[in-house]
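Recall from the previous lesson that a structure prediction takes nothing but the amino acid sequence as input. Here we apply that procedure to V-type proton ATPase proteolipid subunit from Trypanosoma conorhini. The sequence below is the only information supplied.
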Amino acid sequence: MVGHMQFAVSRLLGVAASICPLVAMGVWAATRQEACLARMYPQSAGFYGALGAAVALVFANLGSAYGAAKAGVGVAHLGLSAPEKIMRGIVPVVMAGILGIYGLIVAVIINNNIKTEPFSYSTFSGTLHLGAGLAAGLAALAAGLSIGVVGDTAVRAYGKQDQVFVAMVLMLIFSEALGLYGLIIALLMNNQANRYGALCGAG
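The prediction returns the following tokens.
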């Protein structure tokens, strides 16, 4: 009887000795995964994404506001010197206003792609969205500065010489293209952020 009990105890000890390493490995793997999730999916990732949406809209609107205001001064001067040319002279103001739409588009797209579920929005996605917002916003800001300066000067010249109009439109188109470049890159960066796969086994 005692021999059977000793044999059973030895078998139990052998099973426990074989299971304990497996349990330890499971606990270690779970702890490692939790650390990976906390590192790759921090709460600050959402802040980066929201900041990207904000800077896209703010900088684009700054460029749009400056371009419209600066060119508007030239349009007002044109109204005094050649009132019949005002409708063609407001082209720079219209093109400056379009820049704000670029920032709005990028901000809405980024905001829609910010995920609120746990472990679903990584630092990689957040920083890419921040970069997309900066690309669109700063490009639109540069375009607005260019449109404002070109529009103000060219509209004043158009009031005295009709042949300036075609050259003014061409200069404004190339200035507007700066904002379009930023919009294209922002959309590409947003797509790259959405294609990024799950990390640490997270969904």
